[in-house]
Design brief:
The chain is α+β, with helices and mostly antiparallel strands. Helices cover 29% and strands 25% of the residues. It contains 9 helices and 16 strands.
Length: 407
C-alpha cells in the first residue's frame, strides 16, 4: 500500500494497489498490463478493482506513444451525474411509488431501447457534436434516439437523501449502444494490427494502437466523441428527470451538479510529461475535483472531493466494484433475496428476477472501498437512496448478458 508522503522517486513499482479486498487473478491481469513497453510509469489499482476484459476494471494506466482501446473500456465515457436540490426530505410525499412510472416514461431504459422520436434537445446536441465517420443509417438513427436514455446492466437512476436530509438526483450511464460499437470496432482493428505486425501479447485483449498512425488518430476521434456524447446523455436525462420531479412536487430547483466520467482517457501532465492516462472504472480526483462514487443497489453513494494524490495519477474508485461475476450472482441469489435487501425502498420490484445480477451482495462493501481511499478523496456528502430505477431489457424482459461487467 502506498500512502501520501512516500517519495515516488525512491521507488520504481510496476503496480500500486489501493484495494484491501482483491483477487489474485485481478492482480495478475493488472501486472500483464504493467509489462507493456509503452506504460509510462506504474499501473494504479483503485479499491474497487476487479477482473475485466483485457484490462482491469478499476485501473489507471499511463501510456506514452500508444493506447489500448480495451483499457479505456467498451462503454466509452460511462460515468455519473448527481444534482443537489433545494428540496428537503420532509417536503416529499409519504411515498415515491407513484413517481416511479413517471421516471420510466421520462427515461427509457434497456438494451437497444430509446425514445420513440428524436427530441429537439437531442437534435441540437448532435448538431454541435457531429457524427463519427463510417456509421450506418441505422446507427445514426439509434444514437439520436438513445441520447437521453439509461441503458441496462449496472446503469441506474436514483433519488437520494444526504446527511442533512436534502434531496439529490443521481444517475449512472454512458454512451449507449454507439459507444460500445465504436469501442468494439477499434478493439478489433487493434487486434488485426497486432497480427499484421507479428506482435505477440500476453493477453490479445491488450491490443494497442500506435501514436502517429491513422488507426490511432481514428480511435482518439471516436473516443473523444463518445465521451462528449456520454456526458450530454447524462445531462439530458438529468434535465428531464429534475423537470419531472419538480413539476410533480410543485416546487424545487437545482443547487449544484457533478457530471464525471469513469471510462475514459485524456492527455494529462504527470511527472513533468504530457501522457495519455486511461481510466477504466476510475474517476479523476485532482485536488478539489468533485466526483460521484456510487454504491450498489441499497447501499450508500458518495459525493467526494479529490485530494490530488500523485501516486494514483490524481484518481479514485468509480464505485463499489464487483465482488463476483454476473453469472455467479445469478447462480447464488434469487429475486426474493434482492427484494429482502431492498425492503423499504421504491424500486422495480416486479423485475426482481431480471435484476439479480445487480444484487448488492454481488458487489464489494462501498464503505470499505471508501476507507481504502482516504488518501485519494474526502467525502463531502453521503447519499442514501429512497428510489431506485435500474436499466433492464424490458423489451424482452430478460437479464442482460451474463458478463463480468462493462465498466
Amino acid at each position: 500500500r502506498l500512502r501520501q508522503g512516500i517519495d515516488m522517486e525512491q521507488i520504481t513499482p510496476k503496480l500500486l494497489n489501493w484495494a484491501s479486498q482483491i483477487e489474485q487473478n485481478t492482480l495478475d491481469q493488472a501486472l500483464r498490463t504493467s509489462r507493456l513497453p509503452f506504460i509510462a510509469g506504474h499501473v494504479a489499482l483503485m479499491p474497487d478493482a476487479h477482473l475485466g476484459f483485457g484490462a482491469t476494471v478499476g485501473s489507471v494506466i499511463p501510456v506514452r506513444g500508444a493506447i489500448i482501446p480495451a483499457a479505456v473500456g467498451v462503454d466509452l465515457g460511462c460515468g455519473m451525474c448527481a444534482v443537489e436540490t433545494d428540496v428537503r426530505a420532509e417536503q416529499l410525499p409519504d411515498s415515491l411509488q407513484v413517481f416511479l412510472p413517471q421516471v420510466e416514461r421520462t427515461i427509457p431504459s434497456g438494451m437497444g431501447n430509446g425514445h420513440a422520436t428524436i427530441s429537439a434537445k437531442a437534435s441540437e446536441c448532435l448538431e454541435q457534436l457531429g457524427l463519427p465517420q463510417g456509421l450506418s443509417t441505422h446507427q445514426e438513427s439509434m444514437l439520436a434516439r438513445q441520447l437521453g436514455t439509461l441503458g441496462s446492466g449496472n446503469h441506474f437512476f436514483e433519488i437520494c437523501l444526504d446527511e442533512r436530509n436534502m434531496v439529490w438526483v443521481v444517475l449512472h450511464s454512458g454512451s449507449r449502444g454507439i459507444g460500445n460499437q465504436l469501442a468494439e470496432r477499434h478493439i478489433k482493428i487493434a487486434k488485426g494490427l497486432m497480427k499484421r505486425w507479428f506482435i505477440a501479447l500476453e493477453d490479445p485483449e491488450l491490443a494497442y494502437l500506435v501514436q502517429g498512425t491513422a488507426e490511432f488518430d481514428a480511435y482518439i476521434r471516436d473516443m473523444l466523441w463518445a465521451q462528449s456524447y456520454a456526458r450530454a446523455n447524462r445531462d439530458i436525462m438529468m434535465d428531464a428527470a429534475c423537470y419531472q420531479l419538480f413539476r410533480w412536487l410543485g416546487f424545487g430547483s437545482e443547487i449544484s451538479r457533478v457530471n464525471c466520467h469513469h471510462n475514459y482517457a485524456e492527455i494529462e501532465r504527470h511527472g513533468g510529461d504530457d501522457i495519455w492516462v486511461m481510466r477504466k472504472g476510475a474517476i479523476r480526483a485532482r485536488e478539489g475535483d468533485l466526483g460521484v462514487i456510487p454504491g450498489s443497489m441499497g447501499a450508500s453513494s458518495y459525493i467526494v472531493r479529490g485530494l490530488g494524490n500523485r501516486a494514483s495519477y490524481h484518481s479514485a474508485a468509480h464505485g463499489a466494484g464487483r465482488l463476483m461475476s454476473r453469472s455467479e450472482a445469478v447462480k447464488r441469489f434469487t429475486g426474493a433475496d434482492l427484494s429482502a435487501v431492498m425492503q423499504g425502498k421504491v424500486w422495480l420490484e416486479k423485475a426482481a428476477d431480471a435484476l439479480v445480477d445487480e444484487a448488492p451482495m454481488a458487489y464489494k462493501d462501498i464503505d470499505r472501498v471508501m476507507e481504502d481511499q482516504k488518501d485519494l478523496v474526502e467525502i463531502t456528502h453521503c447519499l442514501h437512496q429512497i428510489l431506485n430505477y435500474k436499466g433492464i431489457d424490458k423489451a424482452r424482459h430478460r437479464k442482460p448478458p451474463l458478463l463480468l461487467g462493462v465498466d
